[in-house]
Amino acid sequence: MRDVAIVAFAQTAHRRRTDELSEVDLLMPVLHEVLGATGLKANEIGFTCSGSADYLAGRAFSFTMALDGVGAHPPISESHVEMDGAWALYEAWVKIMTGEADTALVYSYGKSSPGEVRDVLTRQLDPYYLAPLWPDSVSLAALQAQALIDAGDTDEAALASIAARSRTDATANPYAQLTGDVPAGDHLVHPLRTGDCPPIGDGAAAVILAAGDTARALCARPAWIRGIDHRIEAHSLGVRDLTDSPSTRLAAQHAGAFERPVDTAELHAPFTSQEVVLRKALVLGDDTRINPSGGALAANPIMAAGLIRLGEAAARIHRGESDRALAHATSGPCLQQNLVAVLEGERAHV
Question: Cα separation of 51 and 41, whole Å?
Fold first, then answer.
């Protein structure tokens, strides 16, 4: 087993529309920023892995064009996952753990503005029974929210307080898309109001991983990945209990999240109701700071928001604002797929 850490993190300022920018234009500044933070050059990166979705870009193999942001020379060891960048980070972590690389560059991006995201995400659904009905992502989240209300786990006022806290915390985040006093708004799909739902926007993020002494040389306080795991629920929503997330709980267990408390949790909860589910599954109490960045309710670039949760948790460790943090990423309807990582900073020697 090797010690692997996140040593640098960068993200874009997330915006509702970036019509004037291509995916490469979005990516290049964050790639330059993470490389600059470590002093590494492209030929010193052992492995590169990206996460994105062709459905968002509207063309096949769109990630190959995004490689222009990395550079055509020198030749690189590269891979891609058709998932949120958090899963690209997992692949890079495995690559380093096997000893095939000592450093890795992970990046992800998403431009949601050109299309109708609520319609595009129906392509994730079961193709035989559910997708032909075209239930959009907000309607499915509303079903989950109503199930939580019916079970007595939350109510509309509690959901509104989650949104208010998240947007207030986001005022300290210069990259957030929505901040401050965002009104709850009208019901978008009952019981979810506009304020319970994430903004649609464009953005990108990147991190650098490194092993052992290499990480210590690149970063004053590396965010060590003490555990990371991902699990998946059944594809059919009809056989799941939408008020619970067993896959999140199992991933957290295998990542070591329950061994001792965490002081910070960056949860990828695009809807307020999903934070209720995740807090229960992860057994997070009031002494844990939840989404100090504002979370996905403040900025939700699809295919990058999960990687950003890992990056935000790592950045707090880099700055000395956290000692043990949990990061969570999700993909699919109603928290179908979930990844959990536990990050720690080294304690000062006495």
Answer: 21
